[in-house]
Structures are given as structure tokens and as C-alpha cells.
Design goal:
Elements lengths: L1 E2 L20 E3 L9 E5 L1 H6 L4 H11 L4 E2 L6 E3 L2 E4 L2 E4 L5 E8 L5 E7 L14 E2 H16 L6 E13 L3 E11 L5 H12 L23 H13 L9 H23 L1 E2 L21 E2 L23 H16 L7 H12 L1 H17 L9 H15 L3 H14 L13 H12 L5 H11 L7 H12 L4 H10 L10 H4 L16
Parallel strand pairs: 1-4
Antiparallel strand pairs: 2-5, 3-11, 6-7, 8-9, 9-12, 10-12, 11-12, 13-14
Helix pairs in contact: 3-14, 3-15, 4-5, 4-7, 6-7, 6-8, 6-9, 11-13, 14-15
The structure holds adenosine monophosphate (AMP) and magnesium ion.
Length: 511
Amino acid sequence: MHGAGGDAGWRFDNSYARLPEQLFSPALPKAVRDPSVAVFNEPLAADLGLDPAILLAVAEGIFSGNALPPGAEPIAQAYAGHQFGHFTNLGDGRAILLGEHITPDSRRVDIQLKGSGRTRYSRGGDGRAALGPMLREYCVSEGMHALGIPTTRSLAVVATGEWVLRTTPLPGAVLTRIAASHIRVGTFEYAAAIDAQGAAPAGTTTNHPPAQQGATPPGLLPALLNHAIARHDPTLAATDDPATEFLGAVVARQAHLLARWMLVGFVHGVMNTDNMAVSGETIDYGPCAFLDAYDPTTVFSSIDQQARYAYANQPAIAHWNLARLAESLLPLVRGDEEAALEKVQGVLAHFPELFERHHLAGARAKLGLITQENGDRDLFTALLGQMHEAGADFTTTFAALAGMAESGAATGEPWSLPVFHDWSTRWLERLKRQPGSLSEAATRMRRVNPLVIPRNQKVEEALQAAESGDLSVAHRLLAAIRAPWIESAENAAYRAAPPRGCGPYRTFCGT
Ligand code: AMP
Ligand code: MG
């Protein structure tokens, strides 16, 4: 292994690797046989202050793990997590954090390889990833970003030229992931569990004060909290009770994120606490998918037998996950045990209210509303109820609203169905009760109701073509999902809902 890409603009400063060593384990990416770049995200490279042309010349080496960028200090991060409700010790079993790159505008971003070989936390796994799922993460995260939803990004997918053995042999790949951080709810659960086992050095109390800069008390939790606050909420470091304030900040970010997911019909599919980032970015695209026909009970993942992570359950699950974060942070919350418990419960109790506020604001925007009336929540819920009954496609149903506001007429599926008539009359009346013209409302709606989302079947087509060596389908898909608001001849095929009756879509985890 050798360094490469020295003049591409890398500026590493690896603060996570300076944390107590139980939080991670040094781990080198394992070299691959015959790397070739499948996709490279030039606009993202430029946004990170990296020279796309220089980087592309060394991309096969760097983004496969065969070479390290200068300044990288590769580690695997330790974490735990509640998987489908059960606590487990995990860690990066197939991912390696190269370090933190500082962008020219002073953002600190994690650069992580996924599928780069075994680590100390691999358990029985091979540490590898298949091309299909890595391209899936690349495409769906690009789609989420284009929709304006906080998410980790993907810088590259490099095919390894090796096979990974799943139920069948599949072409292998390494994904390079960019994130505000990879600190998960499960990272705090891990730190809390280790500290509680007494593995922390003597002198740690169960209720030590939060650390001030330069004076970190012993234990993993205070160090992790300081680190997370420095990265995501630096203004909280000087508050009286940073642990409680930090919990509040994470609660607020997740309430916002969950509202955004729900408003575009996104189903994450595996909302285990290890797959929830404290940064508020969508992370770990596994069995995720977007709703086609609206059905709140939708589950795509083949392993989610109990429908724990069904579309409509997501806000409640996020709340449950945040309670696990709260429990983990309790030892750092100021005050005696009872007071601390009361405080975190108070913070957690805000979640439903914050979610509702974001969701209602987003729902109003989807309907073109700029004023507030008491009946607005019901107007939105009534529409969803009818969409459910009619099996209406989530994305195209909302996308049609702008045209209807302009023409004043309900046309096309599902709007021409008689059951939608009363609703559309009610909605048009509501629109007319607010200032501004209907065409202005239409313009606003076109900015929030996407025409293009990464449709499940389209993503699947792109992955299948890629697996047989044709990446052109993935490139066309990416071009379409990167411009979700614009109607063009090129994206016509990506706007359409799948034909009715094409059967339930299934996604698979752990590939
Ligand atoms: P995920 O379902 O992708 O969130 O993964 C859950 C846990 O399993 C994480 O700790 C992963 O690092 C680990 N894992 C998943 N796939 C593999 C693999 N092929 N080899 C080693 N660890 C894996
Ligand atoms: Mg995960």
C-alpha cells in the first residue's frame, strides 16, 4: 500500500482517532485485485475542495483501498446498537474510516470506505460489499440529496474485480462515503455500556460533570460527547448542561429528518439505533425504498417480518431510538438521578410535537398553502386516506397538484376518479382563501413536490445492468434523479409510476 493523490487537495485532521482507543481500532483496507471506477461523483469532489481531474486519475487506487490518500489514519469505529429492538455489540465490520477531511470552507467531513475488508468488528462477515448494493447507496443518497434531505453522500463506487459470495457469487465493490460524522446513537450506547462495565479508568463517577475543553474527565462517554458536540453543536459546549442540550439538538434534527422522509415517501427499512446518525443525516442505505402506491403499512425489507420499520411507524421508531440515546447520555446529565431522568424525559417528549410541526409545515407546502387554517392537517390526512383507498401513486399524485391549481381542473390518474372530486374542490377553495394567485401556488408546489424520485424498479434496472458491465443505465438514472423538479424528455421514463399490479417490491439486507 502506498500514498497517492497528494495534490488532489486532501487536508486530513483525524480527531476521532485521537479519542480513547476503545472507541475504535486501527484497520487497513485490504487490497483488491483489479479495481475499476464504476461511478465517481465529480460535483461532490469539487464541493469538498478536491480536484476532480487529479482525483479521477488515482481514483481506482484510493477508492478501492489499494492506496491511501496522504494524511489518512484508517480506523474501524466501535459501536453497539439495538437491532430490531435487541441490544448487540457491532462496530464497522466492513467499513474503514480514512479520516476527516477539512474542506476549503472549513467543513469537517468523514471519508469512509465501505466494503474494504475485514476489521476487528467483522464477526463472521467477509468485510466486503457487492456492486449492486453499493451503487444502490450511491444512487439513492444522490436522490435524497437532490431532494434537499440531509444525507451522507457517495464520492465513488469502485468495482474490485473480485467476487463476493452471498447466496450467489456477486461482483464486489467499495463505496466511498462522505458524512458529517459516523457517530451513531449506537456509538453512545457502546460508550455507555463500556463505562457502565467499569472499564473506564478509576475515578469515573456515574454523574460526572460534562467535560470542558482541555479537561476531559475519564470514561468514553464524556470524550465522545465532547467530540460530537465539537463537530455538530459547538455552541453547546459552553452551556450549563451540554448532555441535555445535545440530546435536544439530536431530537430536533431527527424530527426534521423524519418529517422530510415521510413527505417524500421514503422507507429507510432498517432503523436500528446503529443506523441513526446524531448529525441528523440519513445513513446506511440498505433495504430502503420509496413508496409507489400510498400505503402506510408498506414494508420493503424481506427481513422486517414484524413490520417494525413500516413507513408509518418510522416517526415512532425514531422516538424510540432517541430514548436509547437519552438513556446512554443519562450519566452525563447534570443533577441527581431523579432530576436527570426528568430532564431527558422532558426533552424526549418534544419529539412528537417537533415532528408534527415540521410535517404539517411540509404538508402545507405540498398543498401549496402559505397561510394556516385549523383544517389543514385534516385536508392532508383526507387526501392520504383517499390515495390509500385508490392505491394512488404517492409521487405522481402530489406532482399533479400544481397543474390542477393552474387549470382548476382535476385530470389524469387518480384525480379524474370520482372519489377525488370532493377533495379537489375543497382544496381549490382552500387555495383561493389565501393571498396570491393559483399560478403562484403552482410554482411553489413545483419546488416541493418532486417529479422524479429514485423509483425502485428504475434503481433495480440500473443495478442489474451494472452487474453485467453496463453502467450507462445508472448514469441515465443519476442524471434524472439529480434534477427532480424539472420536466424533460430525458426524465419522462423516470417520472412515471410503475404499472399497477406489478407486485410488491422487496429489498434485501446485508448484501
Ligand atoms: P448493516 O445492516 O449494514 O447496518 O450492518 C450491521 C452490522 O453488520 C454492522 O456492524 C456491519 O459492519 C456488519 N456487517 C454487515 N455486512 C458485513 C460483512 N459483509 N462483513 C462484516 N461485517 C458486516
Ligand atoms: Mg449499519
